[in-house]
Amino acid sequence: MIDIKVEALTCEYRTNPLGIDIKRPRVSWKIQSDRRCTMQTAYQIQVSPNQENFTETLWDTGVVQSDESIHIEYSGPELNSRTRYFYRVKVWDNFDRESNWSETAWWETGLLDSEEWQAEWITPEPKEIDPLTESIFLLRKEFTLKTGISSARIYGTGVGLYELFLNGNRVSDELLAPGWTSYHKRLQYQTYDVTLQLQDGCNAIGIMLADGWYKGNLVRENNRNIYGDRRAAFFQIHVTYNDGTEEVIATDTTWKASTGPILFSEIYHGETFDARLEQKGWSQSEFNDVDWADTIIQEMPITRLVAQENVPTRVTEVLKPIDSFVTPSGDTVIDMGQNMVGRIRFKVNAPAGTRIVLKHAEVLDKDGNIYFGNLKFAKQKVEYITKGEGTETFAPHFTFQGFRYVKIEGYPGQENGLPLENFVGEVIHSDMVQAGNFECSNPLINRLQQNIVWGQRGNFLDVPTDCPQRSERLGWTADAQVFIQTALFNYQGGSFFTKWLRDLKADQLPDGNVPFVIPNVEGGVGSAAWGDAVTIIPWTLYQTYGDERLLAEQYDSMKAWVEYIRRQGKNENLWNTGFHFGDWLALDAKENSFVGATPKDFIATVFYAYSTRILRDAAKVLGKSNEVQEYSNLLNNIMEQFNHEFVSPSGRLVSPTQTAHVITLMFDMVEGEAKERTAHELNELIIQNDYHLNTGFVGTPYICFALSKGGYHETAVKLLMKEDYPSWLYQIKKGATTIWEHWDSIKPDGSFWSDQMNSFNHYAYGSIGNWMYKTIAGLDMDPGSPAYKKIRIEPKFAGIQLTNARAVYDSIYGKIRSSWRLTQEEVEIEVEIPANTTAEILLPNAQLLDVTEGGIRLGSSDIHSFLVTEEGVRLTVGSGSYHFKYRNARGLRTVFTEETKIIDFLDYPEAVAIVERVSPGITKPPRIFSTKARSLKELVELQENNLSDDKVIAIIEELNLLNEKEALLKH
């Protein structure tokens, strides 16, 4: 029975984090209550080094009168390294209830002082093993332990990538460790609890080392050794015995080295594994390593070791192939049914020396052949050579592929058909916790949401990459910033982006300029909307999670960027100098250009204003009053200069593009009549383009927001619902299962965009998900109350185009749900608000006397705060679940136009049948839009139909739209 309960305790966004190096960690919790309007009034936290004994606590807050339940900073005595701290929480609420203590959670520290490292960086003796060999290194050491092991941890890292073994078994299911950071400035180390994997007496540890991002091929062909040209390992095992004594086994020159069965492994190119070269038992004790090479101490340019900040990369799902077939070109191909990122694991029974080759691709061409052209120089090839000892199972270790289709060569008997049961796809990405979901009445939109999620999963692999298949896979800043809010709706990304922002700050240039990609392996700096990731992402994280510490940590970096822009050119209030990508990949670009028609200085100045506004708002949060005033003045000056430079006296923008109008509206660059005119002209631009967009990376994330906020929500929905090129749903009609880089990655005739740059898994345009959550479902927050402390539920209906929508989001306070359903007669809205928060709910188009909640008239319910407005009824509520119903005064009609007498109805065939029944002599019915038929043009040729008023009224009566009689008769 739930009374009031504290649950879901986290420390620095994670549940029971192992090996953190934060000296003042923060804890958060959620509250479950069986009463509405529950607010926390006080809390108590206890921290103890003993799980069973909280009588002698290390830190006890006592009863703190506060409603704060997120990011409460530990303020007890200084923490020790390599120590597990247990904590528990209880709360009091506004109903004078006291909870029980929560279940006990913990965090464990890693090495808090660099002096505690005893390990040395080691690598094979170069005289015995070529340090530049493509073969993967094997390192090993045997050691003997006493009886009575109490606990054991491994702390360590490697460059480039490593896998760790103890006594013949993998230590962890983590992949591609230690991840990708700005290695010259920051390198993550990992902590593993190996208490149960060690044994009294003889033990052995083994390490596999691959090139990875550290020294492998990146960015350009034959571009290698960006961070260093030597692989190396750095590990130490701490063993604690029951008697309190400790022992440390660390990497040093007593370790031995060899190469093994992995002859080659690269991020872009795949892996070659010769099972005949396996050294059985190499990571176990009593293995004969007499022929192995020595190791040496390797000097490394690493400046700082940090405990792992991001969630680990893991296999998160296993997919079974849906089909295998032979292409017209004669290739044997398996189809995973989903464009995924990860690897294939397969089983085979074949004679020794059989070579099996897997080549990975995303799509088939229009002839049905597997298409590799968009991979550029990435090979995405996995080769396995059998050892011939019964059934063998293999998956690559230090690489990942982006693919749906896999060409198979050399598999025994494949000419008679592949045994699909022997193949699975292992999906790999940073193991983030799912946070939200969106769904609605349109199955294509639901598929779009799935594609957005799959695109995020495929590209959030330790860093937010642009694409996961071709020879790129880089942390492009613009892609990350346009997608950040959608990303945080879909998955909990606090630790993921904390780590990436620290790399951004590390790679930011001394003058404040920001490279194109983070970690910086590409070069290039200063582009508007790209460099602005430095302000947009920390601010979005603050809004989503209330993370003031991270905002403070990033503030100087944010300020440096704004000041860099400020110094550009002769006018500090206008950004009209330097290189800019502009509205990248916009469809209004000139022939053979990637850059849209919106002037670059227009875009740059708008984003300059946006970053300045964010910096001012961050200064407010952090109490920097002088800088609040300074950047308020700067913002005003930028906006004044923008209006002088880019807006005519009558309010017309100098650039007649969709993107110019979108970003002007989205970032509030104009006011009053100029704002109304800009919104109207944007709407006209969309209509003139038959409800299609022509925006690129800059305009697309905001286009539907600009329309909905400007009073043209129906246009925004029609834009989303378009199924022909260019549109989001066009991709889906072409079979997309992730988001494409280009609106026409596959053209209407089945041909492809240029091989030069054509990813089929590129999440930037998936930023539409943000609008789907916030505007269609109406799940948003009050911007003055970060982390959804005060929630806004304001769904926007779209007539018959969508008849229901539902969004669920697990905020840092708890689950929020906004769900609505329309029928011809009724509106139904269901809302769930977590404890310790409040919400403002808009019931669109509602009349107060029509509204019931839980079957009770609103005035008689326990909701006492409501306001009748032109938009509908606004309510203020506390936590709990709410179920509203009221009369659908507008029915499912969205628009009647005098010239064509358009009738919107849910089901086109049914509407046509009614028209034909009422007026059987009509050969062509009036135009009727629906979700099932994009327009009547697809079914009949339009012609003038002069229906008499009585016929129209009869049709309306059949459709139960009697309230429209009077309006129509006036026409």
List keywords for this structure.
alpha+beta, Immunoglobulin-like, Jelly Rolls, 6 domains, 17 helices
Walk me through this protein's architecture:
By secondary structure, the chain is an alpha+beta fold. It has six domains: 4-109, Immunoglobulin-like, CATH 2.60.40.10; 117-265 and 278-307, Jelly Rolls; 313-430, Sandwich (Jelly Rolls), CATH 2.60.120; 475-721, Glycosyltransferase (Alpha/alpha barrel), CATH 1.50.10.10; 778-887, Maltose phosphorylase, domain 3 (Sandwich); 908-970, no CATH class. 22% of the residues lie in helices and 27% in strands. α3 packs parallel to α5, α5 (533-545) packs antiparallel against α6 (548-566) and α9 (658-666) packs antiparallel against α10. The longest helix has 22 residues, at 600-621. Residues 327-429 form the Alpha-L-rhamnosidase concanavalin-like domain.
Task: Give a short synopsis of this structure.
InterPro entries: 6-hairpin_glycosidase_sf, 6hp_glycosidase-like_sf, Alpha_rhamnosid, Bac_rhamnosid6H, Bac_rhamnosid_C, Bac_rhamnosid_N, Ig-like_fold, Rhamnosid_concanavalin. The protein is an alpha+beta fold.
Draw up the topology in text.
Layout: E1 4-11, E2 18-20, E3 26-33, E4 40-48, E5 59-60, E6 64-65, E7 72-73, E8 84-93, E9 105-109, E10 122-124, E11 137-145, E12 149-159, E13 161-166, E14 169-170, E15 187-193, E16 201-210, H1 212-215, E17 232-241, E18 246-250, E19 256-259, E20 262-266, E21 270-274, E22 293-297, E23 305-307, E24 313-319, E25 323-326, E26 332-349, E27 355-361, E28 363-364, E29 370-371, E30 381-385, E31 391-394, E32 401-409, E33 423-430, E34 436-440, H2 443-459, E35 460-461, E36 463-464, H3 477-490, H4 494-507, H5 533-545, H6 548-566, H7 600-621, H8 625-646, H9 658-666, H10 672-688, H11 703-709, H12 713-721, H13 728-733, H14 768-776, E37 779-781, E38 790-793, E39 804-810, E40 815-822, E41 826-833, E42 838-844, E43 852-853, E44 856-857, E45 866-868, E46 872-877, E47 880-887, H15 908-918, H16 949-958, H17 965-970
Parallel strand pairs: 2-9, 15-23, 21-30, 38-42
Antiparallel strand pairs: 1-3, 3-7, 4-5, 4-6, 4-8, 8-9, 10-22, 11-16, 11-19, 12-15, 12-17, 13-14, 13-16, 17-18, 19-22, 20-21, 24-33, 25-26, 26-31, 26-32, 26-33, 27-30, 27-32, 28-29, 34-39, 35-36, 37-38, 39-40, 40-41, 41-47, 42-46, 43-44, 43-47, 45-46
